[in-house]
Amino acid sequence: MTMVIGVAHALTLVLLVVAAVMALARMAMGPSSLDRSIATDLLTAVTVAGTGLYVVISGSTTALPVLVVLSLIGFTGPVAIARLISFRSVQVRDLRRSTAGAGAASQTRGSLERAADAAQACATVGPEAEQTWDDAEDGEDLDADTEGRR
């Protein structure tokens, strides 16, 4: 029975080392800060599991306070990063809204320019240009209609 437990401990240690190496690789490669944050959280979890494995193998309880501290760090770190990311997403949303407002103003300016082109076409061409004015009210593109009539 002790041999089976020894093999299980060794296999657990190997899997924890593989997980730690993969987490370190993700931290190094990135590409985003969120990837690095998740890798750091994974590395903290692997460290907690490794410390727990040490406690089980050695039978010593001296590492239990370390487990508690690592568990608290493992909890508060991702919560803080989630708050930071949500704060950034609010900033991005506000920036997009302010940019969208500027885009709407330029669209309105474009509509006024199209209406002015249609009015000019009506004044210079005559009654057949009334269709162009109706198209301008519908928001259709006037460039194709007015270019040939000028």
From TrEMBL:
InterPro entries: MrpF/PhaF-like
Chief localisation class: membrane
Subcellular locations according to the entry: Cell membrane
This protein's UniProt keywords: Cell membrane, Membrane, Transmembrane, Transmembrane helix, Transport
Any Gene Ontology CC annotation: plasma membrane
Transmembrane segments: 6-25, 37-57, 63-86
Superkingdom of origin organism: Bacteria
Entry GO MF terms: sodium:proton antiporter activity
UniProt keyword annotation of Secreted present: no
Keyword Lipid metabolism: no
Short name of one Pfam family: MrpF_PhaF
Signal peptide limits: none
Region (Disordered): 117-150
Topology term for the membrane: Multi-pass membrane protein
Comp. bias regions, Acidic residues: 131-150
PANTHER family noted in UniProt: NA(+)/H(+) ANTIPORTER SUBUNIT F1 (PTHR34702), NA(+)_H(+) ANTIPORTER SUBUNIT F (PTHR34702:SF1)
Family: Belongs to the CPA3 antiporters (TC 2.A.63) subunit F family.
Protein name, as recorded: Cation:proton antiporter
Provenance organism: Actinomyces urogenitalis
